[in-house]
Recover the amino acids of this structure.
């Protein structure tokens, strides 16, 4: 039980921080703002994070929280390809509405230069576990091609999502991430649909 409380407390801090980053901007958000919004204490904040900058690497946590919420409303018998497409649409709608483009760009750039943990590539994240589960079921039900391994499809899907986010940042968000990715992800996923 303590482990879940620890995760919930850390998650509250992460969620509060990203909400404030979106509403106020990263530069205008203070550690005190985050503590107040998350209803935690200064000691609790610094137990989990060295400072505000440490929160930049937590976007993957925010993404996984979104996936946790989506799991609860997923159609269990839906086609696997359609489910993957829906997950992408829902995540990117969240990105469009609550993740400042400069912070997303910053996270993506830090993942390129970091010598430490690359959060977006952590195969133990809920994101990767969920993708693998959907793909396994899709192959078992004959919905997804089997000439590619589960790991190959999972890696390609994650790569496609990162590419779409990177390009959106590179283009300064001049187009709708949701609309563009809806089209591009549809084309991509159709390549894995079993004919």
């Amino acid at each position: 039980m303590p482990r879940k409380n620890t995760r919930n407390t850390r998650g509250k801090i992460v969620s509060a921080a990203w909400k404030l980053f979106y509403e106020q901007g990263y530069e205008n958000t203070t550690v005190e703002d985050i503590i107040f919004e998350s209803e935690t204490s200064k000691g609790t904040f610094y137990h989990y994070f060295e400072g505000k900058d440490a929160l930049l690497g937590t976007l993957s946590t925010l993404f996984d929280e979104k996936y946790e919420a989506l799991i609860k409303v997923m159609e269990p018998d839906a086609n696997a390809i359609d489910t993957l497409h829906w997950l992408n649409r829902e995540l990117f709608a969240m990105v469009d509405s609550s993740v400042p483009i400069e912070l997303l760009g910053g996270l993506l750039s830090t993942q390129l230069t970091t010598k430490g943990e690359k959060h977006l590539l952590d195969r133990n994240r809920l994101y990767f576990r969920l993708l693998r589960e959907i793909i396994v079921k899709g192959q078992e039900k004959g919905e997804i091609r089997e000439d590619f391994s589960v790991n190959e499809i999972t890696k390609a899907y994650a790569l496609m999502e990162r590419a779409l986010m990177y390009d959106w940042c590179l283009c300064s968000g001049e187009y709708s991430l949701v609309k563009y990715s809806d089209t591009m992800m549809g084309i991509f996923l159709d390549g894995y649909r079993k004919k």
Q: What stands out?
A: The chain has two domains: 1-49, 56-190. The two ends are 46 Å apart (CA to CA).
